[in-house]
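Interim report, section 4.2 (structural modelling).
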Amino acid sequence: MIAVTILGNNSAMPTIDRHPTSQIVTINDSIFLMDCGEGTQFQMLKYKIRRSKISHIFISHLHGDHYLGLIGLISSFGILNHLQDLHVYGPSPLKEIIELQLKISNTQLPYQLFFHTITKEGLLLENDKFEVRCFKTNHRIACFGFVFIEKIKNRKLNIEKIKQFDIPICFYKKLEEGLDYITKDNLKINNTELTDAAPKGKIYAFCADTKYDESIIPHIRNADLIYHETTYLDNQKEKAELRFHSTSKQAALIAKKAEVKKLLIGHFSSKYIELDDFESEAKKIFINTEIATEGISYLI
Amino acid sequence: MIAVTILGNNSAMPTIDRHPTSQIVTINDSIFLMDCGEGTQFQMLKYKIRRSKISHIFISHLHGDHYLGLIGLISSFGILNHLQDLHVYGPSPLKEIIELQLKISNTQLPYQLFFHTITKEGLLLENDKFEVRCFKTNHRIACFGFVFIEKIKNRKLNIEKIKQFDIPICFYKKLEEGLDYITKDNLKINNTELTDAAPKGKIYAFCADTKYDESIIPHIRNADLIYHETTYLDNQKEKAELRFHSTSKQAALIAKKAEVKKLLIGHFSSKYIELDDFESEAKKIFINTEIATEGISYLI
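Predicted structure of the assembly:
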C-alpha cells in the first residue's frame, strides 16, 4: 500500500487556505517528503505528520514554492535533536544554498545531512520494499518528477488450499517466501500449489511542474495514481504554455494516454478561489480525477 | 501614533499556534516589516496586513527564524506585480543569499530591490515623520535591534486661547507650523501664546535576540514601548546565557533600568505550552508587561 498526503496544493502565490507544494508519501513504514514549499513544517504540525520518520526528501526543482521550507525543516530537525541521517535529493545548487544558510547561522546539526544532486533520469533509491525513480519534466528550469514503486516479493497465500493440508500457521511466512511444505509423512507439496504469485506493487507518480509533454508518459504508464499539476483552466492554455505549466484538460489527457488508474490534480493558481471547474474539466477526459486537497491522504 | 502588530512570537522551532519572529510597525501611513521568519506571508494573509504598503523591511540577524520568509515574500511581491521599490536592511550576507535564490529560480522582479547592509549602529532611515535607528544586541551571531522614533513637528493648538482671538479655522495649520497671527487691527499675537510645544514623538524599540546586556539601555531609554525577547523562564537562566537568549526576569530588568513605559515579551521557546509564567515572572520586576500575542496590534 502507498499513501499520499497532501500538505500543499497551490502554486507559487499562497492563499489563506492553500499552501505551496508539499506531499508525504508513505510506503509501509517509510515516510518520504516530496517538495517542501515555505511553511511545510507548519503543515506537518497541523496534519500530525510523524516528522521523526522522515529520512529522505525529494525536491523536484528550485522554484521557491517547491523548496523554501527545506532549510527551516532541516534546522528544526536539528533543534528536535534528530540523530538519524537525512538524505536530500534535488537539482543543483540546492546543496550550496542550504549549506550557505547553515553556515551563516552557525548551525551545527546533530545528524548527518547528505545531498544527492539529481542530474539525470533513473533510479534514486531502492531497497527490498520499494524503489524511487526520477524523470525529467518540461519546465522553465531543470525539474524532475518522481515515481514510487512498491515491491511485493511475498507470494499470496491461498488459504483454502493451505487448510486442506493442515499446515501450521507458523509456516505461513515461509510459504509467502516461496518455500515448499513437507508434511509429517514426508510428502512434498510444491509452493505453487499453496500460494499465488505476488501481487503487483502499487505505483505512484508525482509529475512535478511541467507543461503538457507526452514524453513523461513512459515513466508513469499504468501507475495506480499520478499527481499532475493543473495551474490553469483550459481557457488559459496560452498562459500555461508560456509559463511551462499545464491546464486541467492537459493533465487529464496525460492520465488517459498513460492509462493510469487515478489522477490527482493540484498546483492551482491563486487567482482561482473555487476549484470545482478544474475537476469538471478534467473529468470530461479522464473520469477518475480528484482535486488534491490539503490534509487528505489518498490510499492506493 | 505607532502601532506594533505581532505576526510571530515564537523562537526557532514553531508550534501549532506560534510562529517565528515577525512584526509590522505602522507609523502614520507607513508600514514596516521587522524580521520575516518562515511563513510570514501566510501570517500577513491571516491578519489582513496591507502588503502593498510595505517598502522597507528590517532583518535583525540571519538565524533562520528571523529571515527565512523573506525570499518567499520578495517573490510573492513579484507575482503580485508590485512596482514600488523595496528596501531591505540586514546584516551580511543577506543580499548574497536572496540574490542567489532569485538567480537560480530565474526570477525577474518587476520592482527594484535594494539591499542596505547593516554593519554598525546608527541611523538607517529618516524622513520628516520618523526615523529608524539600529543598535547592536549581544547574540550568537551579528544581531541588531531597531528603534522607531516618531517625529512631531507641529505645535499643539491651545484651543481656549485661540478662541479668545477669534482666529479662523483655516489658519490653524499655520499656527501648528509655528506662525504668529496678525489680527485685522494689525496686532501681532505670538505663536507661543496660541500654541504649546509639539508633543514628544512616540518611540518603539525592538530588541531582537539578545542575552541580558545593559549596553542596549542607552538606545532604548524612555521608550514608550519595547519588545524584548524572553526565550526562557528564570529557572533556565543558565541555558539562556549559554544560548545568548534572555529570561523573562532579565527582559523586565532591562525595561525597568531603561525606564520605558511598557514591555512586550516574546520569542518563547516551543517547549513552553502555556505562557502565563513569563508574564507573571516579568511583572514582579516590571508591572507594565504584556505577552506579545500573534494578530494583536499594540498602539502607543
